[in-house]
Target: Ketimine reductase mu-crystallin
Amino acid sequence: MSESPVLLNKHEVERLLTYDDLIPRLESVMGKFSKRDSSEIIQPVRSVVPIQQHNGFLGVMPAYLAAEGILCTKMVTFYQRAEGSSLPSIQATVLLFHPEHGNVTAIMDGEAITAKRTAAVSAISAKLFKPALSEVLCILGSGQQARSHYDVFTKLFKFKEVRVWSRRKEMAQRFVNDLQDPVTVCSSVKEAVIGADVIVTATGASQPILFGEWVKPGAHIAAVGACRPDWRELDDVLMREAVVYVDSREGATAESGDIILSGAEVFAELGEVINGSFPAQREKTTVFKSLGMGIQDAVSAKLVLEKWNSEH
Ligand SMILES: NC(=O)C1=CN([C@@H]2O[C@H](COP(=O)(O)OP(=O)(O)OC[C@H]3O[C@@H](n4cnc5c(N)ncnc54)[C@H](O)[C@@H]3O)[C@@H](O)[C@H]2O)C=CC1
Ligand SMILES: O=C([O-])C1=[NH+]CCC1
Model:
């Protein structure tokens, strides 16, 4: 009879998962993934069950990392919520299994993992693609992802100015009120992005909100929202003019409306740049289109469990 799984709630996962530990593991696993060695990593494209009646979907995200001994799946729901709803848009649970025996070893909250690993991967993209002189950070959206991106981007990089825009100005104001450092609240997307060197799009938009004509040449955009084949955050001009990087080519061509509907060409995966097989075109305008990957959840969950085990 196997031992009962460890149960970890959001508070515990948040406490145990630090960006300093997470970033190197994500860099390593993204690099390995891009080598496409199926004896090392198996990660199918996310299975998605649309719940059209309620503006949501259920995604199942399994992954097996042989060398690391990680067998994992995340189950995640995303519901487009009314502004100010008390329920989060993303709710998730992550299961870790014993790869040899198949029993569940841990069941943990996936909200904190999703928030932190997505922001950490965007930060890796910014490290590689942002202009050498990056003074202005702009965040579009004021939800969970906006906050985790603010946290890790301002932890890793020094900006002279940080701007935030949200659909309702009071939500942007609420976001800023929670922070220690000054952040400019902008009244329009245009005002927020003009002159910005790094732009994070982390909204629930399903139509473009960011237009290429406003974007400073050479800027880097970490595009986190619009994770359905018919949803957009970025317009055709931006998608076609920028050098487009993705987390996974298969995920991007199956799920990203920004890529599918604009017809933009994917230049490389983040992992291919990490591996040195494709260049980081830092001097050009770059888009990193993130959809999220099971391997990112898997290494995050393993890290959380290792930390928890070291304390018990
Ligand atoms: N790439 C990835 O790995 C991940 C992507 N996501 C995506 O990131 C986005 C943000 O997620 P959360 O921060 O968790 O959600 P959230 O609900 O906490 O925040 C959503 C933000 O988008 C804004 N928004 C909603 N609809 C909008 C519209 N039509 N136009 C402009 N702004 C709009 C809201 O005002 C809010 O500021 C979602 O699209 C979600 O699917 C979430 C998790 C992982
Ligand atoms: O990777 C992820 O968990 C998600 N991507 C888009 C919605 C949830």
